[in-house]
Amino acid sequence: MDEHSTAAAAPPAAPPLVAALLGLLAAHRGAFRRARPYERCVALVFASLFAFARHTVTQLLVALGATDADWSAWYRLFSVPRCDYGALTGRFVRETLPHLPADGPYVAVVDGVQLPRSSTRMPGTGWLKAPRTPRWRPGIHRAQRYLHLAALLPRTADGYSRALPLRWEPAFPPKAAPGRTPPRKEWQAALAALTWLRAARRGGARRAAAAGAGRRGLRHRRPVGGPAAQRRAAGALRQEPRALRAPRPAARGAARGTA
Q1: Structural domain includes residue 257
Q2: Residue 71 included in any domain
Q3: Is residue 155 included in any domain, yes or no?
Q4: Are residues 62 and 26 in the same domain?
Q5: C-alpha–C-alpha distance, residues 112 and 146, integer Å
Q6: Which residues, in sequence order, are CB contacts of 170 under 8 Å at separation 6+?
Q7: In a domain, 124, yes or no
Q8: What is the phi/psi pair of residue 127, to 5°?
Q9: Within its chain, how far is the Cα of 19 from the centroid?
Q10: Residue 136 structural domain
Q11: What is the C-alpha to C-alpha distance for residues 52 and 59, in angstroms, rounded to an integer?
Q12: For 164-217, how does the pLDDT look when each residue is reduced to its tens digit (9 = 90+)?
């Protein structure tokens, strides 16, 4: 008998990018108590890469070809907690540490985010000021309000810094539809997010530098840590907007070639 017919063919090696993604997902396995919810979340991650329509659960199931089966198990991932959100996000913070300088501060930014909703009974939905309306004619819309915490990677040679989403904190207004999360203001959610970031990084040598995004862009820059870390973080936060700032237009007389 031919030896090639009996020997099992070796499985093809995964591409480097896919192998790195699978390794990153496997590092978060500890946040799931059971294997099936973890496997469904891994499938949704890959479906989000191949879904070319809106990234809803339905469209992700279309990308997976799982629309003919029962959908209830997929929706229970979001309606019933199937993983430890604190452990999941805390592990991701630890995965970002090798990509940051060991002697520099851990630079993080916070920003308020509104998710437009049409339901009046969904927990956390309320009437908020619509951010896309002009200032001379403000309007309102139904939305959920969250606080987004992200880490800034070191700047590239072109002066850009990539933001890695770390955590979303609910910041529902007092008149929003009641839910499991009590209402709080955006600054309270930002304080909770930064307190959580300190706890997630506990034991590391890096200090944190926080910056908030408001109506006038980055503001309320407040380094957190010792005096040396504060000086380094404040200098980094002062230099970064200058690198990303658009050049000032030439004077009117200089543009016309006149003195």
Answers
A1: no
A2: yes
A3: yes
A4: yes
A5: 6
A6: 124, 144, 145, 146, 147, 181, 184, 189
A7: yes
A8: -85, 120
A9: 22
A10: 101-243
A11: 8
A12: 999 999 999 999 999 888 999 999 999 999 999 988 876 454 566 666 655 444
